[in-house]
Fold:
Amino acid sequence: MRLTAFILLPCVAAFAPVRAPHNAIANAPSFAVTSAKKSFAAPMVMPKTSLRMSDAASEEPSSEQSLASKAFEIYTKTANAATTLFPLWTVLFTAIALKKPSTFDFFTTEYFTAALAALMLSMGITLTPADFVAVASEPSSVLMQFSLCYGMMPLLAMGLGKMFGLDAGLMAGMVLVGSINGGQASNLCTYIAKGNVALSVLMTTATTVGAILMTPFLCKSMLGAVVPVDARGIAMSTIQVVLAPIAIGMTANKFFPKIVKAILPFAPVVGVVSTCLLVASAVAQVSEPILNAGIGLQIPVLLLHLLGGIVGYWLPKLTGFGEVKSRTMAIETSMKSSAFGFLLAKLHFGDYIARVPSAVSVVWMALTGSLLAVVWRYIPVNEDDA
Structure:
């Protein structure tokens, strides 16, 4: 429970839900009945029964429209509040997973993959091919974030490990976390933070494919450890779980815009629910090592993600990138694929303790990314600085 309380502290001062704009349709006056009465005023007198039927007929569509409008307004407010409280849901799901891991036993690998695909699909319907064309025309953003992911973050991880005096096993685990690719949940947080989702997707894809070479190279050069990586498996997973759902979403957006417009307000909620389940499932599988990790490991892992986000924002900002791109790079840099790191440590590091930093990272990665997303959600972006 001490760990749960420690995790809850940054989030207790939760973000108050922001009142959604009142829907003008709900308050629009109906002139149908008044117009009908005036048109029959003279010289012709209609029977009262007929007039009442005309009134009822004209009021019925307006009443139905008003009811639908109010229902949608209620949903919008609720969805906005739920998205705003994303960090809180992350903490609650994490606490449940730590307290009673068996709660998420139902969430098997098949459900995990489906939830990740649903998350990507919910982002895909917000995009168009033109978004990716625009991003591809400026590859400097992707290159900058790639260097942050595989240059700055591994060095930061090693520096924090030495600063906090971690032993060899924990140090290896820290460096591994710093040397892995960006996580898919970063795409949702970028969307919430009003960043560039298309850019985020390309960055995630670039670092995921880059992990085939960069993660083994960094672990070998910094730790002297050989970490084999399944290159074909990573490539296939990236296509199936990231690129394919994004492509399906964009295709739907292009050919079925009316349907997409109708379901678009539900995309953030689907993303938040999917992410919370993904985080809880990963935490439940490694709850014991997370609970056994002391403050001496919790703090450096937290700082790795927090400082990574801060540097990932200000370095691009100071080198001429706009606000939207800087936010996107910050979230992408902060949110590592910690579950993948845990799998690599489990398979290829002989020391069991090397898995623990990745397990702890699952919690702090999700919490840090969601906090950054919600804070930036309510900080407007100047058009000149976009």
Remarks:
- The mean pLDDT is 79.
- The two ends are 43 Å apart (CA to CA).
- The chain is about 75% helix and 0% strand.
